[in-house]
Amino acid sequence: MAAMRTLGRSELSVSPIGLGGNVFGWTADEATSHRIMDAYIDGGGNLIDTADGYSHWAEGHTGGESESVIGSWLRHRKRRDDVVIATKVSTKPGREGLGVDNIHAAIDESLARLGTDHVDLYYAHFDDPDTPLEETVAAFEDVRRAGKTRYVALSNYTPDRVEEWCAIAAANDFAPPVALQPHYNLVHRQDVEGPGNRGEVAATHGLGLVPYFSLASGFLTGKYRPDTVSAAAPAASARGGWVEDYLRPECFAVVDVLREIADAHAVAPAAVALAWLRERPGVVAPLASARTLDQLGPILDALDLALSAEESAALTRASDLV
Ligand SMILES: NC(=O)c1ccc[n+]([C@@H]2O[C@H](COP(=O)([O-])OP(=O)(O)OC[C@H]3O[C@@H](n4cnc5c(N)ncnc54)[C@H](OP(=O)(O)O)[C@@H]3O)[C@@H](O)[C@H]2O)c1
After folding, report:
1. pTM of the complete model
2. Cα–Cα 20 to 30 A to 148, which of 115, 178, 199, 308?
3. DSSP H helical segments within 206-308, as ranges?
């Protein structure tokens, strides 16, 4: 069983890989989603990530689909205490932004869809430049004091805005955020690494990093190949358009190194990509999603796959060139 990790300065103990929930009710139907969550928990995972906005981008969807599917799973399986549930606010159509009234309404709607009286982590999904940050920070503290979330967390905030949030919380004696959710993977490192970047601000304020797009939307599984890539190829997946930025020789060179290391461990490239990310400084639990039970296999392998220092360094070197 994978060793659990403490999330930032919280008392939450989480598995070293979190399960992404944007597929639930989108590319994975309800029954498949339930089986994926069952297998993830049985395999040693405990962190399930969603947002009120998932999956509003899909035709005919309004947002809330993912939370509803997780909610029906929680009701059927009665496993609320076995999981750490994280959700987010700011992107659901009709519930956009981080104004106080919106946050108060959004958390109640999320809890109703999830069928629980509290979440463990409540994220500000995207910064809202149109609302004073003081208002947003105070509203999150209201939600926490009301017992509707155990902890507050941030996603997609710039280092400066994380600093501002923490300063406002400290000045008002509010609980500080415990996690930062950035875009981070082997072919997208610049947001997190380097002086003054998100990794540094997270370390300064004791926020655990919970990377998203850990598989670069599927690119790091190796299923997109240079020999088959054409303008049409990415459309093979519902999220194919999300990988177009990676269809470059430098990114395919990273996948070549992933394949070589994966073969040596008899696992899939996706497992190696997640194992590399899991051990980067400050990272607590990379998030990855599975559309099918088969796709979940490498995610479970990544919970305790140990790469050698040479293997990690080879991946880092290849990814330095991206
Ligand atoms: N905070 C934010 O702004 C933000 C943004 C994005 C995501 N997130 C969170 O992070 C989670 C992870 O991100 P993500 O799900 O968008 O991307 P991801 O984990 O990088 O990619 C997952 C996708 O890759 C494909 N895949 C996974 N395993 C595979 C395998 N073994 N073989 C082939 N294909 C495989 C599947 O898509 P297909 O089969 O459909 O190709 C799967 O849905 C999300 O679910 C969400 O909870 C947060």
Report:
1. 0.97
2. 199
3. 249-265, 269-278, 293-301
